[in-house]
Fold this protein.
Amino acid sequence: MAVEFPCLNVRMVPREKVVANTYNPNSVSADKMELLRQSIADNGFCCPIVTIYDEDEDLYVIIDGFHRRLICEPEWLDIPQVPVVVLKHNLAQRQIATIQFNKARGVHQVDLDAEVIRSLLSQGVGEEEIAARLWIDLDTVHRYKQVTGVAELFRNADYSLSWEMVDE
């Protein structure tokens, strides 16, 4: 029995209305881009570009699929209409989804991963939730905090003495 999901409603939109987000830490090598071009040329879009719709800008902001979108440019395949799925995510949900999609597939740039973690923390997403949603341990969350600025991110932390004074 097939299960239908309302969020999987794919629509075709002009490629110029589909734009990159500002936080994606994923990168793809030139040979993998060529492989992606060949795959889309041979197989079409097996996975639509995952987006949110920004009503103010009248644009679709990519959550996942930036490189698929890039392949649609004239210098690659010149595809004028691209398939998108539109989610209704806030910024934290979008950033989490981007990392989830990327980690399920490939390699990350640690400094950009750390910046997303910093952003999630500043939006009030807890360390435990970040660890659980991104499939990383708390030590990794803490290491990412160090990369993006220890003082700011640990500002409100409760500290205890690392040793006690003992009278002899």
